[in-house]
Amino acid sequence: MKTIFLILLISLSMAAHAEPLGNLASVEDGLDSTNLDNVSDDYIRLTLNVASYQTASAIKNAVESWLGPDMVIVESASLLKIQAPRDSTARVEFLSALLNLDIQ
Question: Which UniProt keywords apply (predicted)?
């Protein structure tokens, strides 16, 4: 009985663990004019460090809970596009808040 309780307790603690988005993905923000691969548009592109549809879905849910529906496009298990401001100052502030967003 103690073993089952410990397993349940560990499972619950793992489920409640949140990690900042910045630890899970790298960002292409479209503002680096020296990078010819960057696309200057309304989206920030996140490339997951470890490709996973489960992580992509968790990020989509967290971002859309914060910003509202239809703000995230999941392109693949490793790439997401998030709608962001075009103004460079607002975009930097947005990126800072986004990368600190806790993902369950």
Answer: Cell projection, Cilium, Flagellum, Signal
